[in-house]
Amino acid sequence: QAKPARDDSFICFHPTRSAMSSFHKDINCDACGQQNLAGTRYACLVCHDYDLCENCHRRRNAHPFHPMQTVLTQRDFVLQYGANGSSPEELTIYRCPYCNQDGFSLGTLLKHARALHHDCSQKVRCPACVTFRTGRYGTHLLDWSLAMHIENAHMRFGTDVELKFKLLQYAATSHYKEIATWNADSDGSVLLL
């Protein structure tokens, strides 16, 4: 059978886990100051660029009433979700930034936000952008409703950033034996090499 021609415009996958990060590069704990957080990171969904390490989050002395998105390291994410064969749409890893309910997929979070929070004017961070550090909404508050953002940025794949987000999710969950080399550029956007 003929081997398909190589398409250099597509993402290259490298069969190594050593390239995956076991810490959150350039993410610091806003409570204790730990730099390049190791282990699970907790990102506030209602504050601009506010993160906690596992120890500070466990104590809940800092930021006790704000919804915090659980963010695994690249390595931990692939180890936890890579082998189960879930499609990106099936991952139930997102938290609602309005009511703090956890365990949503992108689709169920969209339905939830439309049904229960359609008239919320509070600016929040997108839990998917926070989790995968995509674009400016990985750190910045949304300029419009969460439902509108999810639908336009993550469900329609209208721009290169959203396509990279979708491919990153797919790579992390479907190609756990052939992990993508992924990095973040200076503004935190995901680069797939």
Number of helices: 6
Strand content: 5-15%
N to C succession of SSEs: EEHEHEEHHHHEE
Structural class: alpha+beta
Helix share, percent: 25-40%
Mean of pLDDT: 75
- Report the principal-axis shape: globular
Ranges with pLDDT <50 over ≥5 residues? 1-18, 174-193
Largest sheet: 3 strands, antiparallel
Domain ZZ-type: 24-76
Keywords: Metal-binding, Zinc, Zinc-finger
GO cellular component, one term: aggresome
Family: Belongs to the KCMF1 family.
Protein model, in words:
The structure is a single chain. By secondary structure, this protein is an alpha+beta fold. Helices cover 29% and strands 11% of the residues. The strands form 3 sheets. It has a 3-stranded antiparallel sheet. The protein has a two-stranded antiparallel sheet with strand order 4-5. A hairpin with a 5-residue loop joins strand 6 and strand 7 (190-192). The two termini are 28 Å apart. One of its GO terms (cellular component) is amphisome. Residues 24-76 form the ZZ-type domain. Belongs to the KCMF1 family.
Strand and helix layout:
Elements: E1 41-44, E2 51-52, H1 54-59, E3 68-71, H2 74-81, E4 94-95, E5 102-104, H3 106-116, H4 127-132, H5 146-155, H6 160-174, E6 182-184, E7 190-192
Antiparallel strand pairs: 1-2, 1-3, 4-5, 6-7
Helix pairs in contact: 3-5
Structure summary:
With 193 residues, this protein is an alpha+beta fold. 29% of the residues lie in helices and 11% in strands. The strands form three sheets. Strands 2-1-3 form a three-stranded antiparallel beta sheet. It has a two-stranded antiparallel ribbon with strand order 4-5.
